[in-house]
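Quick start: read one record
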Amino acid sequence: MHNREPVLSLLSSPLLWFTSLSLSPRRLMDSSPMAETDASAAPPSVSAPSSSSKENLAPLTSRIAESKADLLGRIQGLKKDLQDWRSKLDTQVKTYREELTDLKKTLIVEVEQLKSEFQELRNTLQQQQDDVANSLNNLTMKETPEVDATDKEENK
């Protein structure tokens, strides 16, 4: 029993098992009385982990390639979305500029019309003011000879 404990503890600890890989399986079997009865308990040879690591790298490499392809596809999709967005934005900007140009032209025309109407209104008001002033002058001239006559009569 005493001879089995070091081998069993060696095989039960994963860290020790990996460090024991440098020992050949034959040496482990020879040093253990249990090896005579159970040869399947011996650790695999040194070449087994390297072949399994190559096997593990193949799926990992293919997954990396798939992930890379997926990311490139997503990037291309995002680039296309950005291009579409820019195109739509450029179209909107062009449309808004055209609308603003039309509104500006309309505003200029309306402001010119308002200026013209205000000028006509000023002219009309000035003409009416002149007419009223002339009418008042005419009224005062008509009344002035009568006033002069009444003033002469009062002075006598």
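Confidence is low (pLDDT under 50) at residues 1-41, 43-48.
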